[in-house]
Amino acid sequence: MNQSGLERRVRKAIRELEADGLRRTLQPPSGIDLSSNDYLGLAVHPLVKKNMAEAVLNEGCGSTGSRLLRGNREAFVHVERRFAKFKGAESSLYFGSGYAANLGVLSTFIERHDIVFSDEQNHASIIDGIRLSRAKRTKFPHCDVDRVAALLRSAPAGVQKFLITESLFSMDGDFAPLAEYADLCRETGTELIVDEAHAVGIYGKQGTGYVEHTGTGNGVFLTINTAGKAMGVAGAFVAGPEWATDFLIQRARSFIFSTAPPPPVAAALEASLDVIRDEPDRRTQLLQKCILLRGLLRESGLEVPASNSQIIPVILGDNQRATQAADELQREGFDVRALRPPTVPAGSARLRVTVNVGLDESTLRRFALALGKICSTVCS
Ligand SMILES: Cc1ncc(COP(=O)(O)O)c(C=O)c1O
């Protein structure tokens, strides 16, 4: 059959991706998990599974409508109140995903003529949310406090300003200088929005995130707390003042014009919050394992960045090299994935290794040895 113009265009684009080593395929999990975001093992925790399963049996699967219509349930309202308390915020609102939360927050609060400063490594959902707001985005170099200070201080007075950052960066595994940002925002009347996607559940004494760890809660306008990573379930809580979550209910299109998540997800999140409160050893052990693996990788001759987080980038540069290393690790039984542009900047293709609390020391040792060998082969 003749190809349509569209089909030809698409096939050409796919061939170009292939040639650049950028074609993606969907692969199921296989082998030992060194790539998921289930850092605390909560996705398979017996209590989380039980709560969700019971809720399915009691309430059914789907919510049947938007939260503004028949899709609202007491389970959502309850878990939102509980999350707000946990986070030390006045209020929280639960979105179906972190992506939807960032789109909703940024397109709701930022108006076209506002000024937005955004870390150059911020997640795609932040970039897209700012795009939707139609405000001009000023990217600043990754975690560069001096540059942020200069930008904020020289921005015109009387214009609403926002500073947006992840707290723990999803691809680099390093932390934003939140204390410095909070001071600068206070000084310049800038609203600070922090995406805690990879930090919530792990950092801080109560495990509420890096905002807690740095004691910057008072200086932050809103946090976005993704619940599908360390919390092991799905969705995201936006936490902040009540007037702000109320406004999201009025205006956030990704909240309003979307079917509410399945109510059993709220039940699972209740259990996940219980486990974070009752099993603090999970996060302590996780952080010990992060330090151990980083040390082992260095012993294997790999360059590992200074941060001690659960996200360890092993940068190989070249797209094909990164894919080849990931394939070889898969063959050795380790599930590590290659990340390539546009997920990471061009020329910085990498393996994104993540630590989870279920990994034991001997596995980490075997993995570090295998990775050291594979990287020296693919880079030679
Ligand atoms: C920093 C950051 N923000 C937001 C998201 C989106 O969250 P979700 O996967 O729940 O849509 C991600 C997911 O990868 C992320 O890494």
Question: Which key features would you list for this structure?
Answer:
380 residues; 14 helices; 3-stranded antiparallel beta sheet; alpha/beta; binds pyridoxal-5'-phosphate; globular
What does this structure look like?
The chain is an alpha/beta fold. It is 45% helix and 15% strand. The chain has 14 helices and twelve strands. Strands 2-8-7-6-5-3-4 form a seven-stranded mixed sheet, sandwiched between helices. Pyridoxal-5'-phosphate (PLP) binds next to helix 4.
Secondary structure elements and pairings:
Layout: H1 5-19, E1 32-33, H2 46-59, H3 74-87, E2 91-95, H4 98-109, E3 115-119, H5 124-133, E4 136-140, H6 145-154, E5 161-166, H7 178-188, E6 190-195, H8 210-214, E7 222-226, E8 236-240, H9 242-251, H10 253-256, H11 263-278, H12 281-299, E9 311-317, H13 319-331, E10 334-335, E11 337-339, E12 349-354, H14 361-379
Helix pairs in contact: 2-11, 3-11, 4-5, 6-7, 12-14, 13-14
The structure holds pyridoxal-5'-phosphate (PLP).
